[in-house]
Amino acid sequence: MTFLFADPAELWLEIAPNLQVRAWQNSQMLLHPNSAWRAYLNQVCLDAFLPWLQAEYAPQARPLHSTAARPSIWDATNGTAIAMGEKRLVLIPTEAIDGDELRVPQEWADIPEWVGDYYLAVQVDPDERCLRVWGWTTHDRLKVRGTYDPRDRTYCLAAEDLSLDLNALWVAQQLCPDEVTRAEVKALPELPVAQAENLIQRLGNCAIASPRQEIPFPLWGALTSNDAWRQQWFQYRQGRSPVRLGQWFERLFETGWQSLDALFPNSKAFAPSFRRTSERGSDASVKRVKLLDLGSPEEATAVLLVELGEEPDGRTNVRIQLHPHGDWNYLPPKLQLTLLSETDKTLRSVESRSQDNFIQLPPFKCLPGFRFDVRVTLDERSITESFLV
């Protein structure tokens, strides 16, 4: 909904109540309160602005970063990028009502892969359920006229240097598609893997309120622009260091991963699918299960099973299944089991049907050092487990 009574030079949009509720629920996965609130503001801003943009000007517009990747960005910094073909918008939401300046985090101005063409100043009012786009600028103008503030690593541009009429942005795009909007940006250094791993563990301490200011920006920019490294850092910060599968062959298991006998002391309580799993596994294989709380319907639970086998060529054979638990003979319908790469790319996904007593991903073989995630999704609830072979 657009507010017709507003200043025609500004854009006012309504934030639907269901968008607020969903954004708030999703933001609670971030442990630090500042990060959770930042994620909430960015999510409601994106959810309200993107449909309007697609309907009015750019049907092909899409978020630059995936749904799974955005929490790791918002955990550290403010802003959301939207790709529109060859052009890119960066939304910078804030609760501030004075509107005297636009403050753009350095990541969006100096990481080459993140740089935008246009930066939009957005005021978000959660209480009134609305947002206001009150100004915009180009990357070139931000870098030339803006002032860099080393205290919080932002580029600041005064309100008088912003363009206030959002319509002018769309007109400029149509009439001057070759207009130079981006300033030159220096390349970031390449981090050795060992240095990146050390930084991930060092900055993964959730007690650090602002990890982006703990190390020089070139190092931070190089670390956070790498999707895999940023996701690893985020997992450490959330207290989700990966399950080290290689140690399972040495009978070293993380808390929560049990044997079938421990979870089901009475073997007669095994579901038929578990009995087949137990009988099919070789003596050399290692199997562990973890109980997952699916939340709904009716407090349903499921059991995630991971089975490992050693191959002659040094690779590890991995098999992953999801089974019902307790009084449930079947999995809830439309329960998804997804295999993700360390950069959150979907590799495989299966979904339960009615009366499925288990689902499984296609078995795969991988070398030591391979990282992957397994995500279980039912309705709005999602549980992710991270693994390192």
Describe the protein's architecture and organization.
The protein is α+β, with helices and mostly antiparallel strands and 389 residues long. The strands form four sheets. It has a six-stranded mixed sheet with strand order 1-7-6-4-3-2. A hairpin with a 4-residue loop joins strand 14 and strand 15. The protein is globular. The N terminus is likely disordered.
Map the helices and strands.
Elements: E1 11-14, H1 17-27, H2 33-56, E2 62-63, H3 70-74, E3 80-84, E4 87-94, E5 101-105, H4 106-110, E6 118-125, E7 130-138, H5 139-145, E8 147-149, E9 154-158, H6 166-175, H7 193-203, H8 217-224, H9 227-237, E10 243-244, H10 260-263, H11 272-280, E11 286-293, E12 301-310, E13 316-324, E14 336-341, E15 346-351, E16 359-360, E17 364-366, E18 371-378, E19 381-388
Parallel strand pairs: 4-6, 10-19
Antiparallel strand pairs: 1-7, 2-3, 3-4, 5-9, 6-7, 8-9, 11-12, 12-13, 13-16, 13-17, 14-15, 14-18, 18-19
Helix pairs in contact: 1-2, 7-9
